[in-house]
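agent> fetching stored inputs for the flavin-adenine dinucleotide docking request
agent> found them:
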Amino acid sequence: MTATASDAAASDAADAATAAAHFRFFTLEVLRTRRLGHSFLRVTFGGESLAAFRSGGYDQSLSLFLPVGDQEHTELPSTAEDTWFGAWRGMPDEARPVMRSYTVREQRRTGAGEVEVDIDFVLHGDSSPASRWAGRAVTGRRIMAIGPAVAENKSVRFQRPEGTDTVLMYADETALPAAAAILDRLPAGTRVKAWFEVPHPDDRLSLHTLADQEVTWIVREQGAGGPARTERVLSALRAAQLPAEGTPYAWLAGEAGTIRAVRRHLVQERSVDRRAVRFTGYWRLGASEEQLLAEAYAGQAPSEDPASDL
Ligand SMILES: Cc1cc2nc3c(=O)[nH]c(=O)nc-3n(C[C@H](O)[C@H](O)[C@H](O)COP(=O)(O)OP(=O)(O)OC[C@H]3O[C@@H](n4cnc5c(N)ncnc54)[C@H](O)[C@@H]3O)c2cc1C
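agent> prediction call returned; pasting tokens
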């Protein structure tokens, strides 16, 4: 039950290419933006095509296509859902929209019957396309997305096996929107122990759930990256007592190196059944999503075998 950052990026693309019936193109129009914390910007999208949008909730992800150069709106050649990938890849570099994976934080219907979708972007600097686009998003801008047309689809990765009664969660800021959406859905009586790692104290967003949750916030030290960052997360986990009883399901998402270390800790040091660990690299330190995709397609990404990197 695994995906590295490159697998996740490629899998969203491949899901869309192969399961065309489950996914389709949508035009998302920016309705409004709202700062949620130091690092988070919520962009609320609308648009007629969203009438057919069917989020499966939990950690439902989608692929966004962002404009390049001086384009205001995304321009993609019109193509069928099962052939878009070749058409997109075949576009000249300077015209090819940037593809990025994001989470549907919420889908709702307004009083007027229109569908709105929230996506929470981490703003991590102007030199990265998605972060830059979000930081400059204004009402009326249009982007394209490949997203769910049916609620049961492969881009909902949180799939709690029957018989598990405790949810262990680790998320960094990129996966906090997904973690929050999962918590929204968990029923009363579910025991949740979660570690959420964020860059700034103001990023400790308020979370709503009926579940019985215990959250530990890990606020990253300024400039702490790579191994120091992972070590800090592991220290927090090592210091924690896991519920003595129950059968856990672990959901882990965030920076790929940290995710691997957290998974190893749970499986090797805490004897969590590796088949009950769902882990997804949402990004990798030092690699853009293009690089992750290129690795996945060149077969260089780490194996999907859960035991391979333990
Ligand atoms: C299934 C899935 C769901 C996701 N959901 C969300 C979501 O809801 N919200 C969200 O913000 N992100 C989410 N992400 C992560 C997001 O896709 C990546 O952070 C992506 O790299 C951002 O694109 P970019 O153009 O800003 O940076 P890129 O051009 O891809 O990367 C440029 C550089 O920035 C680094 N980088 C990437 N992200 C970060 C970051 N957050 N902080 C610091 N450095 C970074 C990279 O390592 C690289 O060195 C999700 C990813 C996946 C796979």
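agent> quick read of the result: The helical segments are 5-18, 84-89, 129-135, 176-185, 226-238, 256-269, 289-297.
agent> awaiting further instructions
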